[in-house]
Amino acid sequence: MYNLNLSNNEKVLLIDDNILIKNKEKYYTIIITNERLLILDYPNVFHNSNEDLRTSGKMNYIKMKEIIESINLALIKNIEEGNAYSKIIFKNDSYLEIKGKNVIQKIMTLI
Fold first, then answer.
1. CB count, 10 Å around CB of 45?
2. pLDDT tens column, 82-106
3. What's the half-sphere exposure (Cβ side, CA atoms, 13 Å) at 76?
4. How many CB atoms are located within 10 Å of the residue 83 CB?
5. What does the alpha-carbon distance between residue 99 and residue 89 come to, in Å, rounded to a whole number?
6. For the residues of 76-91, what is the DSSP string, one character each?
7. pTM assigned to the model
């Protein structure tokens, strides 16, 4: 389950739950819309009051991934494909290295 709000004209084009980001040790979810690249993860258990209630046995809740990064597709300048990781380069010359061919191929069709 995902906790996200889309604008009126925004449509989800791709969801991939198995994306590795270089220098991170876990999988993230990436959602590509016609406007944005969204990176999602579960909320931090140390700052999640619902998790405190769940572990105390007082409540159950559905864990939902939340947006931890939202990037407008117009900010993407280029993509450099690599063997393991591909680099998404932004107009401010920062970049994000991910392992996920489906995501890279979808972004390339949109930029």
1. 12
2. 889 999 999 999 999 999 999 999 9
3. 23
4. 6
5. 14
6. EEEEE--SS-EEEEET
7. 0.81
